Amino acid sequence: MKRKGKLIGIKNFDEELYRLVKAYASLEGRSIASVFEEAVRLWLETRSLDEAKIWSKLDREYESNEAAIMKAAAEKPEELREGFALACGGRVVGVFKTFAEAARMAREVCKDEGVVVELPLRERKSVAEVELGFPW
Amino acid sequence: MASGAAFYRNGKLNFLPVVKAVLRAPDKAKSLDLELIVDTGFQGGVLISLRDYLALGLNLFEEDRVIARAAVGRETWLRFSRVEVEIAGISAECRAYTSLGVRKPLLGREFLKRAGLHYEPPSRLEIGFAQKG
């Protein structure tokens, strides 16, 4: 069964390359989307697809858990004043005195992903950067 | 001094410094024996594969996501949690990072600044003397 398609736009795509894709798609009587899909599938085969799926799932869970902590901090600031807040499954599990206590609880109750945030929450202006020397 | 735990591999690669380490999750429920490549260009504690990160259950208590900048300028997202690193009986808590496609686990400056490192190939590689004074 053909899966539902999504409209996407790509900025700064090589114009000449796009012309070639269009020309070949036309010659082969197929859509440009199907050519891109084939190219992306081939590219994904060179990567670990399972790992990418897990990563993507962790990302979704992380965002939902982080949002749950932010929401709770805005709604009940007195409950998230100090310690370490743990969230998983899209809800705040509790606030713990130490990171290790939060980790022990996470091991018990969290299934796929958990977020532990040190309190009080600090406003972040940008994403932190880490220097990574070795090109692994 | 961590003799035995630290050694050189492959002189053709200009003596790759390798250390045997035990990584423990912050709740101590799981641990993993790994050989880490010493990388003074890496700012963090350890960089491990997603498979090892999941094996330790670090996905259950993640702290944040950060952008990593490689020596060649390439940027990539990292996720991280805390981990206890033990090398030849010397332990320190530091951050364990992971990303997609990590093939070689690294030991970075967050651990090395506490433990100390003496790199003098081909015979001498010491780690851990800083803590012992």
* Rg from alpha-carbon coordinates of chain B: 14 Å
Helix/strand/pairing class of chain B, anyone? mainly beta
Approximately how much helix is present in the residues of chain A?
40-55%
Distance from first to last alpha carbon of chain A: 39 Å
Overall domain count of chain A? 2
Strand residue percentage of chain A = 15-25%
Instruction: Supply the number of helical segments of chain B.
Output: 2
Features:
heterodimer; A: alpha+beta; 2 domains; elongated; B: 133 residues; mainly beta; 6-stranded mixed barrel
Please give a structural write-up.
The complex is a heterodimer of chains A (136) and B (133). In chain A, 18% of the residues are buried. Chain A contains four helices and four strands, in the order αααββαββ. Helix content of chain A is 48%, strand content 16%. Chain A has a three-stranded antiparallel β-sheet with strand order 2-1-3. Chain A has 136 residues and is an alpha+beta fold. Chain B has 133 residues and is mainly beta. Chain B is built from two helices and ten strands, in the order ββββαββββαββ. In chain B, a hairpin with a 3-residue loop joins β9 and β10. Classes of the chains: A alpha+beta (136), B mainly beta (133). β4 of chain A pairs parallel with β5 of chain B.
Could you give a short description of this structure?
The complex is a heterodimer of chains A (136) and B (133). Chain A has four helices and four strands, in the order H-H-H-E-E-H-E-E.
List the helices and strands and how they pair.
The complex is a heterodimer of chains A (136) and B (133).
Chain A: H1 15-27, H2 32-45, H3 49-75, E1 83-88, E2 91-96, H4 99-109, E3 114-119, E4 129-132
Antiparallel strand pairs in A: 1-2, 1-3
Chain B: E1 6-9, E2 16-24, E3 31-38, E4 46-49, H1 50-55, E5 64-70, E6 75-87, E7 90-99, E8 106-107, H2 109-115, E9 117-120, E10 124-127
